[in-house]
UniProtKB/TrEMBL annotation:
InterPro entries: Homeodomain-like_sf, Resolv_N, Resolvase-like_N_sf, Resolvase_HTH_dom. Pfam families: HTH_7 (PF02796), Resolvase (PF00239). One of its GO terms (molecular function) is DNA binding. It comes from the Bacteria. Residues 1-139 form the Resolvase/invertase-type recombinase catalytic domain. Belongs to the site-specific recombinase resolvase family. This is Transposase.
Length: 187
């Protein structure tokens, strides 16, 4: 089993590309993977390369949870993926170590973090609902703007009743088939 120490970092907006070596010079790493601050959760080439590189027994070192993930839910998923690959994760700022060989300690911590992630989502939904209700009371909330005008809806329904292809209608009106069926169902 190999025992590599691997650094993953996500540069902040203030850091220049040339500072990667400076940030990692105090410790020796077998590999360093980096993502730019503009990379979003779906496009993180450095993290993808890291997951292709790591093997059982490796240790991944990350400066902070925020560098690894932008949400608690995503962080829990990444930790679970690392543990499944039998990789240890060190989070330096938080002074946390998730060891793949110490699952009786790691699993309860991840469970608590997942419960907190669910709590965060519930609070966000409540705040959003309260904000929408307040905006409706003020009369300043009208919901999402309709994709089609009333005249377009009438034309859409007429053409659909005439037997025109649903796919062609969706393309002609630049709407998804799901939206098309929603308009047809509302009649």
């Amino acid at each position: 089993m190999r025992l590599h120490r691997i650094k993953y970092l996500r540069l902040s907006l203030q850091e220049a590309e040339g500072r990667v070596e400076k940030k990692t010079s105090h410790d020796v790493f077998d590999a360093v993977f980096c993502d730019e601050p503009t990379d979003n959760a779906a496009n993180r080439a450095g993290l993808e390369k890291l997951f292709r590189y790591i093997q059982g027994g490796d240790t991944v070192v990350v400066d902070s949870m925020a560098s690894l993930s932008s949400s608690t839910e995503q962080l829990c998923t990444l930790i679970r993926q690392l543990i499944e690959k039998q990789v240890t994760l060190e989070l330096l700022n938080e002074n946390l170590v998730f060891r793949h060989d110490d699952l009786e300690v790691v699993r309860p911590i991840i469970s608590v973090m997942e419960a907190l992630a669910e709590f965060e989502r519930a609070v966000a939904r409540e705040k959003q609902a309260a904000g929408i209700a307040a905006a409706k009371n003020r009369g300043s909330y009208s919901g999402r703007k309709k994709k089609l005008s009333d005249n377009q809806v009438v034309s859409l329904i007429d053409r659909a009743c005439a037997g025109e292809s649903k796919s062609k209608l969706a393309r002609d009106f630049d709407i998804s088939r799901q939206t098309l069926y929603r308009y047809l169902k509302s009649t």
